[in-house]
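Sequence only, no structure available. Ideas?
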Amino acid sequence: MGKVYRARDTRLGREVAIKVLPAETASDAARLKRFEKEARAASALNHPNIVTIYAVDCVDSTTFIVMELIEGKTLRDVLADGALPTRKLLPIASQIADGLARAHAGGIVHRDLKPENVMVTGDGLVKILDFGLAKLAHPEREGGQPVELETVSELTAPGVAMGTVGYMSPEQASGHPVDFHSDQFSFGSVLYELVTGQRPFQGKTAPETLAAIIREDPPPIASLAPGSPAGLRWILERCLAKEPKERYTSTEDLAKDLQGLEVHLSELSSPSGGIAPLPAQRRRTGLAMAVVGMLILCGALAGGLLLGRRLGNPSPPSYHEVSYKRGFLTTARFAPDGRTIVYSAAWGGDPMQGFLKRPESPDSVPFGPPGAAVLAVSPSGEVALALDCWKSLFRRCRGTLARIPLAGGSPRELSENIQQADWSPDGSTLAVVSEVQNKSRLESPPGKVLYETTGYVSEPRFSPGGDAIAFFDHPIAGNGLGIVAVVDLSGKKQTLTAVLEAAGGIAWSPSGKEIWFSANAGDSIIAIHAVTLSGKRRLVARAPVSLRIHDVFRDGRALVSEDTFEQSIFALAPGETRERDLSWLTLSIPTSLSQDGRTLLFTEQEPVYQACLRRTDGSPVVRLGDGLSYSLSPDGKSALVRQFPKIGEVTPTLRCAYVLIPTGVGEPRRIVYEGIDECSGAGFLSDGKEILFLGRRGQEFRFYRGSSDGGKPRPATPPADRPFAISSDGRRLLARSSGVPAVFSLDAGPEAPPRPIPGATAADRPIVWSDDGRSAYLRNSSRVFRVDVETGRRTLWKEIAPNDPSGGTIGRIVLTPDGRSYAYGLHRDLSKLYLVEGLR
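Reply:
I predicted one. Tokens follow.
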């Protein structure tokens, strides 16, 4: 397929690899097409275990790919001395499976997985190479026929190695169409060789090898590697099943099984870790074997743990409760002495407050001014606070950054609109998260931008050496999906994980070699995980409840909170006098209410984002489809929805696309708007044939209007921001301009300046235009006002408050233009703080 050169990118000052198509084959159209297909397939992926493609180019008829330079050995070289020990091969196998799972989630099948196409770096990071035979699961079509690449045209053709043939799947060897199941079989063949030291299928000739793949079973693993774990043998047998349907339903499940097995085996030598079962299989095939295997494995683990205790090894982690009141926490940190705990919480509906918990005191005592949240504690005993804190999503707390001595005193203000912060290890500077012009920024020192995104940044934490900052990079604003990343003080960023759900909480391990973080890594519970700077991940602690890591002291003690988060919907239907609970599962968010108040569109976030419909009289829920719902059409016949990437993708595609889902009979229809870099909130204009949405082209966000059929939209306003409300005649828009609500004319053109509402502030948020068109409903915290947009005169419409204020905040509010019917979300956030000893 080509020659590979080591080269230097003089512009960016980095070493790279260049893969060049040989000149003698450049005229071969089929080979050139295959080469370009490799580049397109690989460049669409971004994962720690897949080689990174930097550029594809052609100069003077020479086609080449510029890619990441990998320093290490191929897996073939690693296998030179024979089979690998289980503890050495499992991390390699887990990383290969994780990379394949990412490719398969993107619709890409490798089709040529073999030891020669896998590299292992000196620090154990695995990289999958050469998507030269990759096939898109939904290939382009020419003349209405699928484009397929022949795997082997002739068994004696030059370049057709026995190795390649030996790792084919039965369907590939038979010349049948292949999908991701084929890669699972090839992976099983590679894994078999890692375990036994020999290939599962070998013949004297290529045809004999292909015949063995199609008809024969490989020698039993137990006879070649009797010491291999039963769980590993069952995974292998499933991957090497002759029928694709008998393999894994998704490669993500395969990766989870390997990761679970790796965790369990590590626990046999480290009994301090918690026991977590292997992920449940999603198919009936092999279920009985899995159950028996689990019993054997659990028995072995129990025996290992008992033996560990007899030998005097440390006991499992112990949890000591620190907080006892009802409410929610934002941040908890160790003071420099390692004994005093500093945290902030809102107990029993009271405002946010800092607290000190000293070992000699049975209870916590207030610290700092009311309304302030703790952000970080310096080595010299200074506390960074967010004054006048107001809680936003995911326990972030925005406010004015200030510093105050731990011994007490008056805070000294530093800067405004700071969301989170952390002190450097020497206490000389801060890393802060701020928001400027619709972008979230990570700065250190404050004012020097190290990283910025149109999503948002959270949980910045300095490394123990002070030379890097770990953080969550959230690709979508207002969404809990996050990626663990690290950036050095020059701004060089490194991505360490795929996309995780419910990402929140980061701390460096005592050694500084790992980053501990809390997230739902695809198994429906928020646990504490660890990742190295090379991207190797493991489980640290799991419990039946959600665990959030706050801080780790140098002796290994940790501050961990047990968090409970619920989102409910309450609504008042037309003609009724009492609110009704319209929640469905555990995380329900109202998004749109029909003009007659009888139909509610909402989003349910568990187990995935789902757009749902429900009558406000309490009728059963109608699930419309996956995605985040935005708006009901004026006639109520359609819902506007945005769909998101799956968990495990590294960089979700943020192109401007929506789905129009019928609320009755009909098929969903995808709407794609061209030329927009990113888009978010959207709503229908009055005729239902046009859509108004907030989009970004370049650096600025503004509203665009486009056909409900998609295509190229046109700008509708100057720079603006959400939340927003469209007037019933579709001629005016109420949205934020320079941080405050203003009226935009949709008839005046995209450069017409908006008219601010007199007296409106940044705390006012538009909800809906009133039925007379002269007023609008704005919310300010939990209070809703009817405001005259010309004069600014406001009248209190309603103050919404939960019956139990502990940990409760009012979320999204939707109401009808006449103000007679409404629905609102109630976020219930409850936390308990623990001091944990024994995490490893």
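The chain has a mean pLDDT of 83.
Hope that gets you unstuck.
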